[in-house]
Fold Glutaminyl-tRNA synthetase.
Amino acid sequence: MKKLIFMLFLFIGIAAQAQSKKVIDKPTIVEASCGECQFGMKGKSCDLAVRIDGKSYFVDGTKIDQHGDAHAEDGFCNAIRKASVTGEIVGNRFKATSFTLIEDKK
Protein backbone atom coordinates (compact mmCIF):
# COMPACT_ATOMS: atom_id res chain seq x y z
CA MET A 1 0.00 0.00 0.00
CA LYS A 2 2.87 2.39 0.81
CA LYS A 3 4.37 1.77 -2.62
CA LEU A 4 1.05 2.51 -4.30
CA ILE A 5 0.69 5.84 -2.45
CA PHE A 6 4.33 6.71 -3.21
CA MET A 7 3.82 5.98 -6.91
CA LEU A 8 0.65 8.09 -6.97
CA PHE A 9 2.45 11.11 -5.46
CA LEU A 10 5.41 10.58 -7.80
CA PHE A 11 3.09 10.54 -10.83
CA ILE A 12 1.28 13.71 -9.66
CA GLY A 13 4.62 15.49 -9.13
CA ILE A 14 5.89 14.57 -12.60
CA ALA A 15 2.62 15.60 -14.23
CA ALA A 16 2.68 18.97 -12.48
CA GLN A 17 6.25 19.65 -13.67
CA ALA A 18 5.37 18.83 -17.26
CA GLN A 19 2.76 21.59 -17.31
CA SER A 20 5.19 24.45 -16.47
CA LYS A 21 5.58 25.44 -20.15
CA LYS A 22 3.08 27.64 -21.99
CA VAL A 23 3.57 28.66 -25.61
CA ILE A 24 2.26 31.98 -26.96
CA ASP A 25 2.65 31.56 -30.72
CA LYS A 26 0.20 34.28 -31.84
CA PRO A 27 0.92 37.95 -31.03
CA THR A 28 -0.69 38.64 -27.67
CA ILE A 29 -1.15 42.00 -25.92
CA VAL A 30 0.35 41.98 -22.41
CA GLU A 31 1.33 44.49 -19.76
CA ALA A 32 5.07 45.25 -19.75
CA SER A 33 7.09 47.18 -17.20
CA CYS A 34 9.98 47.01 -14.76
CA GLY A 35 9.47 43.91 -12.67
CA GLU A 36 10.93 45.43 -9.52
CA CYS A 37 9.56 49.00 -9.78
CA GLN A 38 6.03 48.34 -11.05
CA PHE A 39 5.18 44.66 -10.53
CA GLY A 40 6.80 44.25 -7.07
CA MET A 41 8.97 41.32 -8.14
CA LYS A 42 12.17 40.46 -6.28
CA GLY A 43 15.35 41.22 -8.24
CA LYS A 44 18.72 42.93 -8.14
CA SER A 45 18.16 45.75 -10.62
CA CYS A 46 15.60 47.15 -13.06
CA ASP A 47 14.65 44.28 -15.36
CA LEU A 48 11.93 43.96 -17.99
CA ALA A 49 8.90 41.90 -17.03
CA VAL A 50 5.50 41.08 -18.50
CA ARG A 51 2.20 40.26 -16.84
CA ILE A 52 0.31 37.41 -18.51
CA ASP A 53 -3.02 36.19 -17.11
CA GLY A 54 -2.38 38.11 -13.88
CA LYS A 55 1.08 36.61 -13.23
CA SER A 56 4.38 38.46 -13.72
CA TYR A 57 7.43 36.97 -15.44
CA PHE A 58 10.90 38.35 -16.09
CA VAL A 59 11.70 38.48 -19.83
CA ASP A 60 14.57 36.77 -21.66
CA GLY A 61 15.27 37.68 -25.28
CA THR A 62 15.11 41.48 -24.91
CA LYS A 63 16.35 43.98 -22.34
CA ILE A 64 14.64 46.90 -20.62
CA ASP A 65 17.00 49.48 -22.20
CA GLN A 66 16.28 48.29 -25.75
CA HIS A 67 12.90 50.02 -25.54
CA GLY A 68 13.92 53.54 -24.50
CA ASP A 69 15.01 55.12 -21.24
CA ALA A 70 13.52 53.03 -18.44
CA HIS A 71 13.59 56.02 -16.08
CA ALA A 72 11.88 58.51 -18.42
CA GLU A 73 8.40 59.76 -17.57
CA ASP A 74 6.81 57.03 -19.70
CA GLY A 75 9.64 54.51 -19.20
CA PHE A 76 9.16 51.04 -17.77
CA CYS A 77 10.23 52.05 -14.25
CA ASN A 78 7.55 54.75 -14.09
CA ALA A 79 4.70 53.31 -16.16
CA ILE A 80 3.08 50.04 -17.14
CA ARG A 81 2.91 49.83 -20.92
CA LYS A 82 1.29 47.48 -23.43
CA ALA A 83 3.32 45.21 -25.69
CA SER A 84 2.60 42.62 -28.36
CA VAL A 85 4.60 39.47 -27.64
CA THR A 86 5.20 35.92 -28.75
CA GLY A 87 7.27 33.33 -26.94
CA GLU A 88 6.88 30.80 -24.19
CA ILE A 89 6.75 30.64 -20.43
CA VAL A 90 9.38 28.25 -19.15
CA GLY A 91 9.49 27.87 -15.40
CA ASN A 92 9.09 31.39 -14.02
CA ARG A 93 10.49 33.29 -17.03
CA PHE A 94 9.05 34.46 -20.34
CA LYS A 95 11.33 33.57 -23.29
CA ALA A 96 10.38 36.20 -25.88
CA THR A 97 10.69 35.46 -29.59
CA SER A 98 9.13 38.86 -30.42
CA PHE A 99 8.47 41.93 -28.29
CA THR A 100 6.91 45.05 -29.82
CA LEU A 101 6.03 47.98 -27.60
CA ILE A 102 2.63 49.50 -28.41
CA GLU A 103 2.78 53.29 -28.52
CA ASP A 104 0.34 55.15 -26.27
CA LYS A 105 -2.24 57.24 -28.11
CA LYS A 106 -2.14 60.81 -26.84
In short: The CA atoms of residues 3 and 9 lie 10 Å apart. DSSP finds one helix and five strands in the chain.
